[in-house]
Amino acid sequence: TTAWWREADRKHHLSPFTDYKQLKESEAGARIVTRAEGVWLTDSEGVRILDGMAGLWCVNVGYGRKELAEAAYKQMLELPYYNTFFKTATPPPVELAEKLAEITPAGLDMVFYGSSGSESNDTVARLARFYWKLKGKPEKAHFISRTYAYHGSTMAAASLGGMTPMQEGYGLPLPGFHHVDPPYWFDFGGELDREEFGRQAAKQVEDKILEIGPDKVAAFIGEPIQGAGGVIIPPDSYWPEIQRICRQYDVLLVADEVICGFGRTGYMFASEHFGIEPDMMTMAKGITSGYIPLSGVMVSGEIGRTLVEAGGEFFHGYTYSGHPTACAVALANIDIIEREELVRKVREETGPHLAKRLAELAEHPIVGEVRSLGLIGALEIVQKKRPRTRFPGNGKAGTICRDHCFAHNVVLRAVRDGMVMAPPLTISTEEIDELVSRLRTCLDLTAKDLGA
Ligand code: PLP
Question: Pfam families, per this entry (predicted)?
Answer without folding.
Answer: Aminotran_3
